[in-house]
Amino acid sequence: MPTIKQLLRNKEIRTWSYKICTDNGINDTDELIAYFKQHGSFRAFRNCGLLLNNELKEVCDYYTSIIEIDPDNPDHPIRYADIKSGQKAIERGHIDVLVVVSDKLESAENKVRKFDGNVGWCFWR
To answer: How many domains does the chain have?
Structure first.
């Protein structure tokens, strides 16, 4: 999972959100998600208003939608929870192609391997 600095570099969060996170000891998305799950909001952070709270919540929602990612193999397709999550990944520029499959995992992986570039996939539900 990306660090807060990578989120800033990729323009997924604003500079102020970056500062709020680092001032509160949040350095990566795992820590951000853990804080959100425990507290349900970031409003307790000093200077975190509704806009930045919503921005950080959106980042948490997006990264919790990723079911399977292989950090040691960045060319391996990313599995998303659903089509909506995959569409968000395309909008954010994380993947180029979203493959939606309706059958078993074994055949799903074979279908996904046929594509080049950054590929994500999910099951049709």
So the answer is: 2
- 71-111 pLDDT per residue, tens: 666 667 778 888 888 888 888 888 888 888 776 655 666 66
The token pair that represents 99 in the structure block: 């493959």
Closest CA to 33 of 65, 6, 9, 11: 65
- Statement to judge: residues 39 and 90 lie in one domain: no
Name the residue range of residue 91's domain. 67-123
Number of Cβ within 10 Å of residue 56's Cβ equals 26
Contact criterion met (CB below 8 Å) for 119 and 99: yes
Indicate if 49 and 77 belong to the same structural domain.
Answer: no
pTM of whole model > 0.70?
yes
